[in-house]
Amino acid sequence: MSSSQFRYTQTPSKVVHLRNLPWECVEEELIDLCKRFGKIVNTKTNVGANRNQAFVEFAELNQAISMVSYYASSSEPAQIRGKTIYIQYSNRHEIVNNQSPGEVPGNVLLVTFEGVESHHVSIDVIHLVFSAFGFVHKIATFEKAAGFQALVQFTDVETASAARSALDGRSIPKYLLPEHVASCNLRMSYSAHTDLNIKFQSHRSRDYTNPYLPVNHTAMDGSMQPALGADGKKVETQSNVLLALIENMQYAVTVDVLHTVFSAYGTVQKIAIFEKNGSTQALIQYSDIATAAIAKEALEGHCIYDGGYCKLRLSYSRHTDLNVKVHKIGCFLELWERD
Question: Does residue 10 come out as left (phi exceeding 0), alpha (psi in the -120 to 50 range) or beta?
Fold first, then answer.
């Protein structure tokens, strides 16, 4: 028997530490392995970064000694689902479960927004507030009996804990709320989730790690049915990103030219120019839908140069946040991002 499997010099304890457990080992499996050595009074499973460790507490010290001694001298190792389990005494003398599930630190926060309804706090406001403490990976919002809530996923436990310590019990700054909303207090606990499953970008959920995730257009504007105009035709779903088709392009249209034209109606965050189907097109990103709508109404059919040259045909893009990482000059693709 390998001497590395057991620690003979450890001080005996009623609590036994088990390592190398199979993935998501459940309490029943631990009890089946340990119960023949004595009465089990407590367990703690899925411990450690790989969730492959556990603790078992016996009622009496001699019961824990019996188990550790047995497997130390046995030719048959302790096994669960065919995996060899390494057993030793714990340096703790009892298992203390004094934290409720919401108090066990994790990288995902459960946030309750008090004093508001779901349409009062946008997902962009939530992202703005929480990204002050670190990179926000994902956000999912929903309504429960407790009210409007959100799950906010950070990279690690430390970042989530810092955000919780700073924001729990505080109010969202008033300038980020509608004028008629007096306040919005934040109540937070830790979620048992570690990685949120976001299937598409919408006004209720965002994955900031995957810019290629599909956009649910009906979810983006909060409706289940496409909106129809007075003529019965489908109304275009609005977006903060405009798609510009440039017609009759007799002169060069650069990122700087587009920035000059479109920034007259609000702050332009990002621009991308590209060639598609033999024509020059561009994506122009504003901070919000309202600004993009004003620019679209004002510039649709507008000619950048006199004489009808470089006419703009505008529509809303399905994108909400352009993935701009480079600025290339002298090729078909030019990207610009506001500092």
Answer: beta
The yes-or-no verdict on residue 324 having pLDDT over 70 is no
Residues of the chain within CATH 3.30.70.330 domain(s) are: 15-89, 108-217, 241-316
**Cα-to-chain-centroid distance, residue 221:** 21
For residues 86 and 54, what is the distance between their CA atoms, to the nearest angstrom?
11
- CATH code of the domain occupying 241-316: 3.30.70.330
**Taking CA 121 as the corner, what is the angle to CA 165 and CA 155, rounded to the nearest 5 degrees?**
45
* Alpha helix segments (H runs only) across 183-244: 217-220
| Helix runs in 168-201, H state only | none
- pTM for this structure? 0.41
Any idea which residue has 């499996």 for tokens? 29
The two most distant CA atoms of the chain are separated, in Å, by: 96
The strand pairing partners of 89, in sequence order, are 16
Structure tokens belonging to residue 338: 């506001």
CATH of domain 15-89: 3.30.70.330
pLDDT tens sequence across 156-193: 999 999 999 889 888 998 888 888 888 899 999 998 88
* Residue 308 burial (CB count, 10 A): 10
Concatenated DSSP letters of 250-294:
-S---HHHHHHHHGGGS-EEEEEEEEETTEEEEEEEESSHHHHHH
Is the distance from CB of 78 to CB of 22 less than 8 angstroms? no
| Helix H or strand E segment including 128 | helix 123-130
> Is the CA virtual torsion 96, 98, 104, 105 positive or negative?
negative
**Integer Cα distance of 213 and 201 in angstroms:** 7
Residue whose C-alpha is closest to residue 55's, from 76, 35, 27, 84: 27
Q: Which DSSP letter does residue 232 get?
A: S
DSSP 214: P
